[in-house]
Amino acid sequence: MRPSEALARHREKVLEIIARYPVSNPRVFGSVARGEDIEGSDVDILVERIGPLTLIDLARLEMELEALLSVPVGVHTPGEFGPAATARIEADRRAL
Fold this sequence. Notes:
Blueprint: H1 3-9, H2 11-19, E1 23-29, H3 31-34, E2 43-49, H4 55-69, E3 73-76, H5 83-92, E4 94-95
Parallel strand pairs: 2-3
Antiparallel strand pairs: 1-2, 1-4
Helix pairs in contact: 2-4
């Protein structure tokens, strides 16, 4: 199954899981956002911090989403990327 299909099928549950963490404004970017994902692609999600958020929190969030979707998931925050990557992400990000 393509990651975009898994995400569409479980969108509400994905949003419920994300809401349990101190983050907001979840957006997908990368191949899923561009409609170029294939079986084996991952889901890249960009979130904004709205409270204390540790790397362990991000790892737990990724693990919960991977268990639900059965595809690799990467959860990221804006400060992780340099200017060139940020520009690419901003160009293709889509609301979850």
